[in-house]
Amino acid sequence: MATDKKTKSKIKVDEDQKPGFALEKLYLKDVSVEVPNAPEIFTERDAPKISIELNNEAKPLADGFYEVALQLTVTAKMEKNTAFVVDIVQAGIFTIKNIPEDGLEAVIAITCPNILFPYAREAISNFTVKAGFNPVQLQPINFEALYMQEKEKQKKDSKKS
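^ that's the sequence the OP posted. Answer follows.
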């Protein structure tokens, strides 16, 4: 019987050391919708030119918990006039445990934004419609490629220093 207890304890320790990842909470942290040139902008017939800014931020909370926030700013212009600006911060609380430091950075920069992006995309589409425009359907974003580009840029910048 004593052997069974030791075995169970050992298994429990091994379970605690396993890498873990889970989405705990998903929420819209901030949203702003502006139509600065309304109502005149609605009389223009040109298709708006859309630009997108993207930012990903993470902060540690309690042990093994991280808030990851994906900020997307979509700006539409018709000639020189701004048609609308939609700024969304889609956030989530993730449990990330027992992942090596270099792997943790990749999880926060790739995996978490991949989970958050569809929700931000849907919110942007909904808010552009509520602002009186056709829905903006953002194309998927390759967060792994963005992460790799950022790492390359950091390598080049560190060589210059």
